[in-house]
């Protein structure tokens, strides 16, 4: 059976510059979920036209907007790029320009032109779960996100905070701490071990 070989990483979006090319529906969806997970992300958008709702979301989060057609210079200083225009030629140009500069790029409606995919994301305090279907079914990613949003308890973050505090009280070597941390958390998975 085919399996998902993608490697998820958790980006520090407050230290990175993300460019969204396009200002339509797809741009708005990508922006919405990016900011829902990472309200402190440093985002720039470039497009000749922005949807009013996109502008409202952008204003709330200090998203920089450049009201002009895409130009390769817009890639200067960016780390990650998401192309969402309704012009496949422009999306392809963004992809090629990014590859040339070794920038990670996502062409939202064209999985083969993606170095990375956006995922379904659940955040409960310090805890974050990211979901991918290998680009096969974004709707399933959305449904799984809704499922985990409902079943993960709100106070799961308290558990993480308490364990963080407890670890600080432990003496002994690194190895001793590993043993103690594993002992105290064993009941969480008791039935599955
Ligand atoms: C490959 C990927 C690239 C990328 O965008 O990164 C991609 C691609 C495409 N999306 C399409 C459509 C839809 N996308 C959604 C929703 C989401 N899409 C997201 C991610 C991804 N979408 C990446 C793969 C993720 C994975 O691995 O699973 C989510 C998880 C995250 C986010 O957007 O931030 C977000 C849910 C967020 C949430 O709710 O939590 C819905 C559901 C809905 O709106 O109800 C629909 C309508 C249903 C449908 O049409 O299937 C199409 C078809 C376009 C066409 O017809 O051409 C393509 C292109 C194609 O598949 O070929
Ligand atoms: N809206 C949706 O749910 C879906 C859209 N798609 C596809 O995704 C693409 C984008 O869709 P939408 O966001 O709905 O389109 P849209 O028409 O809402 O937005 C297109 C955006 O691209 C911008 N744009 C056009 N040329 C540009 C350029 N040279 N430089 C920078 N920006 C430029 C426009 O100003 C506009 O902001 C289309 O190809 C569409 O077929 C696919 C599946 C679903």
TrEMBL record:
Indicate the transmembrane segments per the record: none
Which keywords does this chain's UniProt record carry?
NAD, Oxidoreductase, Porphyrin biosynthesis
Enzyme class at the top of the EC tree? oxidoreductase
Q: Provide the Siroheme synthase central domain boundaries.
A: 125-149
UniProt entry tagged with the keyword ATP-binding: no
Top-level taxon = Bacteria
- Matches recorded under InterPro entries: Met8-like, NAD(P)-bd_dom_sf, Sirohaem_synthase_central, Sirohaem_synthase_N
Q: Kindly state which reaction or reactions the protein catalyses.
A: precorrin-2 + NAD(+) = sirohydrochlorin + NADH + 2 H(+)
- Protein name in UniProt: precorrin-2 dehydrogenase
Q: Which SUPFAM superfamilies match?
A: NAD(P)-binding Rossmann-fold domains, Siroheme synthase middle domains-like
List the source organism.
Answer: Muriicola jejuensis
So, what pathway does this thing act in?
Answer: Porphyrin-containing compound metabolism; siroheme biosynthesis; sirohydrochlorin from precorrin-2: step 1/1
Q: What is its EC number?
A: 1.3.1.76
**Gene Ontology MF, one:** precorrin-2 dehydrogenase activity
A GO term (biological process) for this protein? siroheme biosynthetic process
């Amino acid at each position: 059976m085919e399996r998902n070989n993608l490697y998820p990483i958790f980006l520090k979006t407050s230290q990175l510059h993300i460019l969204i090319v396009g200002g339509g529906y797809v741009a708005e969806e990508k922006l919405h979920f990016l900011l829902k997970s990472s309200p402190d992300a440093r985002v720039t958008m470039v497009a000749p036209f922005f949807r009013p709702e996109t502008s409202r979301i952008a204003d709330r989060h200090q998203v920089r907007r450049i009201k002009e057609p895409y130009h390769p210079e817009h890639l200067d200083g960016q780390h990650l790029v998401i192309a969402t225009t309704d012009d496949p030629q422009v999306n392809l140009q963004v992809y090629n320009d990014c590859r040339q500069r070794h920038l990670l790029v996502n062409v939202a409606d064209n999985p083969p032109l993606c170095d990375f995919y956006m995922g379904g994301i659940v955040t409960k305090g310090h805890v974050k779960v990211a979901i991918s279907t290998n680009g096969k079914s974004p709707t399933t990613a959305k449904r799984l996100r809704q499922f985990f949003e409902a079943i993960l308890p709100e106070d799961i973050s308290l558990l993480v905070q308490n364990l963080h505090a407890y670890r600080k009280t432990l003496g002994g070597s690194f190895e001793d701490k590993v043993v103690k941390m594993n002992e105290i958390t064993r009941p969480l998975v008791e039935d599955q071990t």
